[in-house]
Amino acid sequence: MDGTHLFELVIAMFLAIIALHYAAHRLGLPPSVALLAGGATLAFLPGLPAITVNPELVLVIFLPPLLLDGAWSIAVERLRRHMVGIASLAVGAVFFTCAVVAVVTHLLFPSLPWAACAALGAIVSPPDAVSARAVLERVRLPRRLQILLEGESLLNDASGLVLFRFAVAAVATGTFSSVGAVGNFLLLAVGGAVVGVVVGAAWVKFVRRLGDEYLIIAATTLLAWISYLLGELLHVSGVIATVTTGLIATWHQHTVLSAATRMRGTSFWTVMVFLMEAAVFILIGLSLRDVVERGGGFGTVVATMGLPAIAILVTLVVARFAWVFGSDLVIKFCTASGLARTQPLGVGGATVLSWAGVRGVVTLALALSLPEGFPSRDFILVTSFAAILATVLVQGTTLGRVIAWAKLTEHDAEKARLTMSEAEAAMAQAQLTTIQSLAYDAEGKLIHPRLLEQYQRRATAIVDYAARTEHYVPVLHAHFDVVLEAVASGRRELIRLHRAGEIDDETLQELERDLDLEELSAISAKA
Fold it and tell me: How far apart are CA 24 and CA 1, in angstroms?
């Protein structure tokens, strides 16, 4: 396939993404399900060339920016507070699931080497960051569950990758050491964290000196690949390096980025991540044809591999439930014994956490990267793809119902000390204090009376609103509805003036930007 045809296929894929997202919205389906099904359908269209996915390239292109985006948007303080629970899922659950799947696989295929069984366990054990984001963006969870799932999806790929590489090497050498795998994982994780700290600190210093917002946005976009590739080049965890870099960047971005840079950068980054996430699911669907052909066709796959694959899928789900509920029992025992103050999740929370283990791009990439001649390679490929399909199509579509059944509530310890209204009141008071100190000249004469009056009135109104939020919400919604109507009217008049040739393009763009900011402010105030 020449470059022109490849580019045409990429454009066609992006058009399909838009169409499938729109269809999912109209049908009330998770977009990931529509994209996965659409990609699988496209894979078997007559005349469409077979799409071969390069697993290493997929990981390098898609994983770093999506990891950075997850780290950029995560609540750092809650991440630190729940790091033990996140580590339990990202490391403990992955190792446990890998071991259980390896045992079940060996029982199903006694002649299969233990290392090959462990390779399958490593491939299917880590839930995927991309799939988790696609599921979580459609549901509302208590903060603790949200941070546990987000933190797990950021860090567990490192566990799966280390186990996978050890298992593949063990097949080649004939030896496998679980102790060696754990030790190597710790070494890679610490090394990756060090690389991430260095790259993140360099970004903070570099951005302070750049000055130009477009250069800053470009440098921040490259940050994900720089940290990931540098980590891999130094033979440490590129995943941990990228996540660590992202955490440092998100902590400092409030002070090193200007408002204009943050707004423009967020808009650009949001669209890029949207296209990347969607492309991942399309590529997973497109790879179905290659997986089925490797397995000998649908009939052969179902007849020879169907039941063992289903058994391993059930094992995956049961192993995650066992780990999560077992961990919750340990927490409950420690709390009752006075050894810990962490509250257990309870049956509802543990069920939701267990059901949210959705597999995706990492599972596919690892399976496709198995070398030719690897023991039971076709079965591992089919089982890995079945794990992705089953978790996305079944768990991804039913998670909302499971959450509704669980009737989860926010624990008091997870609630912020101040509400948004109270935080706004504190901000308004700080601004008023500054205005009061600057509203008078050196002789004590008031030189900014209107500005002082404006901020005094604003501070008084916000404090009153924070005290009686429920009373003011309907009034404010009606207020900002009128503001939005006024913005729309002003926009129509601005366009009329431009169309009539009474103002030039520069005036149009400048005034339109003011209207856009006013509209965004009103929409945000209504939310």
Answer: 31
Angle between helices 55-73 and 361-368 (to 10 degrees): 160
pLDDT of 248 reads 93
Query: Looking at the predicted structure, is the pLDDT value of residue 294 above 80?
Result: no
Average pLDDT along the chain? 84
The 3 state secondary structure assigned to 255-311 is HHCCHHHHHHHHHHHHHHHHHHHHHHHHHHHHCHHHHHHHCCCHHHHHHHHHHHHHH
pTM here is 0.79
Which residues, listed in sequence order, are joined to residue 446 by a DSSP beta bridge?
440
Task: Classify 82 as helix, strand or coil.
Answer: coil
Question: What percent of the chain stands above pLDDT 70?
Answer: 93
191 touches 236 (CB < 8 A) = yes
Mean pLDDT of 129-143: 70
Who wins on pLDDT, 177 or 401? 401
Closest CA to 101 of 81, 126, 79: 126
Structure tokens at 259: 């408002």
pLDDT in the model for residue 121:
92
Which tokens is 66 given? 């999506």
Is the backbone of residue 270 left (phi > 0), alpha (psi -120 to 50) or beta?
A: alpha
Q: Tokens 């069920």 sit at which residue? A: 351
CA distance linking residue 94 with residue 112, whole number of Å = 21
Q: How far apart are CA 281 and CA 17, in angstroms?
A: 9
Asked whether 16 and 42 are in contact (CB, 8 A), the reply is yes
Residues contacting residue 392 through CB under 8 Å, at least 6 positions apart: 32, 33, 36, 131, 281, 358, 359, 360
**Residue 74 DSSP class:** S
What is the distance between the alpha carbons of residues 293 and 498, in angstroms, rounded to a whole number? Answer: 59
Task: Give one DSSP letter per residue of 439-484, joined into a string.
Answer: SB-TTS-BS-HHHHHHHHHHHHHHHHHHHTHHHHHHHHHHHHHHHH
- Are 83 and 155 in contact, with CB atoms under 8 Å apart? no
Is 141:410 a contact under the CB 8 Å cutoff?
no
Burial grade of 65 (CB within 10 A; 0-12, 13-18, 19 or more): buried
Q: Is-contact 227 64, C-beta < 8 A?
A: yes
Task: Report the C-alpha gap between 229 and 234 in whole angstroms.
Answer: 9
Query: Which tokens belong to 33?
Result: 């399900």
For residue 470, the model assigns a pLDDT of 75
State how far the alpha carbon of 196 is from the alpha carbons of 77, 88, 249, 325, 390, in Å: 18, 22, 10, 33, 34
